Amino acid sequence: KNNVLEVNDLHVSFKTYNGEVQAVRGVSFEVKKGETVAIVGESGCGKSVTSQSIMRLIPQPPGFFKKGKILFEEKDLTRLTENQMERIRGKDIAMIFQDPMTSLNPTMTVGRQIMEGLVKHQRLGKAEAKKRALDMLHLVGIPSPRSRINQYPHQFSGGMRQRAMIAIALACAPKLLIADEPTTALDVTIQAQILDLMNDLKEKLETSIILITHDLGVVAETADRVVVMYAGKVVETGTVEEIFNHPRHPYTWGLMGSMPRLDLSRDKDLAPILGTPPNLLSPPKGCPFAGRCKHAMKICKEEMPETTDASGSHQVACWLEHPMAPAVQAPYKLVG
Ligand code: SF4
Ligand code: MG
């Protein structure tokens, strides 16, 4: 099979004094070799918990894997020991974050931080690791790598820091890169450069990417497939073309409606969907979007909709897909 990663009916919860927060509730998707899969949704939808679960960065306790599997090369990551996970993290699966300062070490030169993984995971000698570090700095487009390699993160600009973080993440040529809001903190020009860089590296290194973002503009520019999450569940998944031009779930319609368009300022979140997501301490038994959905029917509040196929690559969890539901037109048509 061509899948690098398979997430299978994943349930992740957090124990709190108020009860169990069911942050991820039966999420399934796969990532193929060389593919970029974007996970989109509002904050609190479970997209970051999903990605942190793959990296095993969920603090346990209070977090715990309740059910399901995360299969990476036939290993279930939810069941590995911390030592086994250490060997995968940074080597086979790497992660970049919105704020490079949270993952860069301020007291270590950028060069040493790139070399660290190479020495640890690939057992390269110092000279060879340094050569590789220079190559990586060059590859991510940092000018004059020879002087930059000995500098500290604070000597880099925001965009250069982001590039340095990508260099560190990709130094060991991981099979999977998880990027959690990688460009959110950057201005539009630098953002475009970083996205180009990620696209470029994906092709050169054949890395698969999971991109976590709330920015649909970024999704359109980078992703092959999209997973739309809401209240800890996947509500729709499909190719970028399917999700942008033929979305079928009312929540996705709402997301698309709030997408910043080219003629409007990019960093404004427009027309947010009215209402709030359900409390995951006691999730509703029916469709989680029912409380905000214009098209909610009686059954929506009573029973969870099943996931149905709109095409081989397009899945939707909504009662409107059922033959007994009224026909509802998508509220807009994007011309692609
Ligand atoms: Fe709306 Fe019902 Fe579909 Fe949920 S299942 S999105 S409430 S129509
Ligand atoms: Mg987040």
From TrEMBL:
Pfam families: ABC_tran, oligo_HPY. It is a peripheral membrane protein. One of its GO terms (molecular function) is ATP binding. It is found in: Cell membrane. Residues 5-256 form the ABC transporter domain. PROSITE patterns: ABC_TRANSPORTER_1 (PS00211), ABC_TRANSPORTER_2 (PS50893). This is ABC transporter ATP-binding protein. Its main location: membrane. Keywords: ATP-binding, Cell membrane, Membrane, Nucleotide-binding, Transport. Belongs to the ABC transporter superfamily. InterPro entries: AAA+_ATPase, ABC_Ni/Peptide_Import, ABC_transporter-like_ATP-bd, ABC_transporter-like_CS, Oligopep_ABC_C, P-loop_NTPase. It comes from the Bacteria.
